[in-house]
Amino acid sequence: MATAGTPKGFRLHIGLFGRRNVGKSSLLNALTRQDVSIVSDIAGTTTDPVEKPMELLPLGPVLFIDTAGIDDVGALGELRVARTRQIFDRCDLGVVVAAAGEWGEFEQQILGELKQREIPTIVVFNKVDVAAPSEELLAGFRSAKTPVVQTVATSGDGLLDLREALIRNAPEDFINAPSIMGDLVPAGELAVLVVPIDLEAPKGRLILPQVNAIRDVLDVDAYCMIVKERELRDALDRLNRPPAIVVTDSQGFLKVAADTPPSVPMTSFSILFARYRGDLFEFVRGALTIDRLQPGDKVLIAEACSHHPIGEDIGTVKIPRWLTQYVGGKLEFTNVQGHDFPEDVTPYRLIVHCGSCMWNRREMLSRILRCRQQGVPITNYGVTIAYSLGIFERALGPFPAALEEYRRFRAAERERARSRT
């Protein structure tokens, strides 16, 4: 049974790729035992990616993504293919589906794209009751260590083999997922979480990073205290021993930093997710670009969630204001949401990304890789806020390796400046 309450970002994303009408939708329906995707003999029935969350034991919660045929034609077909290609960015495990033993340029290109991204991939030959792949073709896959499964989706033949292949080829970093903050709070110790209740907090609920952090603390047999920023100092005074860490919403950084004793490690939920969902070292390096921003430079602010900004929105109002104040002149900001991330990021001097709590790590790493390939620095909301407010080292205190990386970069910059003079 599917665990419908598990957020997408915590699910293994399994993408089904292939030509039109090879039976991707039939495979998905058979795997999930539900009519998730429309099945038809007419090529191109699946027009947009179809997502289906389910439980795949022993992996746990997964998200199957049935894509439109990658060989679609025409203007509408180009839009469908573009949406299909976005799935590459968030795919943890790829399934390339071919029909009746056919394997051609389209399939090889998809396989090559997945391999280039180092995404574990399974080849499925569907409709083998019509025709099976040649032994020569199968030998090539064995030589390349590419797992192959043969199925007949309509009858269920080979589905057990496909399930086993999915389990065997799931990436190691999903099976042994990193902790959000469990490694920062020893068992039996206390984490204080500073949670603002503002206009953007969902009514009657906490936002996802806060909920995830609470669960992570409980999973390591530690415990937590939840306070708003105004009550933090009084709450700390009431404790008979200091907490292991204080974690705050980034927007409350300055007050929380002032109210937290210097001996107590402090950071933000966004920086926790910079490490958990992305690459904290890359974001630290990206933050150094803030010092080199000049008035008129273009900055892209990217947010995973699609929501209507309310009041003093963090991405559209506060971060632009703090960066403008830091630089001392007007910057040109562009905001994007959801999966609408530009293929070409070279017009931008810096990219500032949200914590991507709603996504899986693969999609965030794909964006980081794109920025690195195009030579554009990328950083994170919480990292940016800490840097622009002058509390960067304090916020990196719980992460000694990242702090040391920052200090090394600073020392190298000072050395280069001395050599120029």
Provide the residue-averaged pLDDT.
85
Q: From the helix content, strand content and strand pairing, which structural class follows?
A: alpha/beta
Order of helices and strands: EHEEHEHEHEHHEHEHEHEHHEHEEHEHHH
| Major beta sheet summary | 6 strands, mixed
CATH class of the largest domain: Alpha Beta
Task: Give the CATH architecture of the largest domain.
Answer: 3-Layer(aba) Sandwich
How are the SSEs placed, and which strands pair?
Layout: E1 12-18, H1 24-32, E2 50-56, E3 60-66, H2 74-89, E4 93-99, H3 105-116, E5 121-126, H4 135-143, E6 148-150, H5 159-168, H6 172-175, E7 190-194, H7 208-219, E8 223-227, H8 232-238, E9 245-248, H9 253-259, E10 266-268, H10 269-277, H11 280-287, E11 298-303, H12 314-327, E12 332-337, E13 350-353, H13 361-373, E14 378-380, H14 381-388, H15 392-395, H16 400-420
Parallel strand pairs: 1-3, 1-4, 4-5, 5-6, 7-8, 7-9, 9-10, 11-12, 11-13, 13-14
Antiparallel strand pairs: 2-3
Describe the overall structure.
There is one protein chain. With 421 residues, the chain is of the alpha/beta class. The chain folds into three domains: 8-175, Rossmann fold; 182-271, Rossmann fold; 279-394, Rossmann fold. The protein is 39% helix and 17% strand. The protein has 16 helices and 14 strands. Strands 2-3-1-4-5-6 form a six-stranded mixed β-sheet, with helices on both faces. A four-stranded parallel β-sheet has the order 8-7-9-10, with helices on both faces. It is globular, with a radius of gyration of 24 Å.
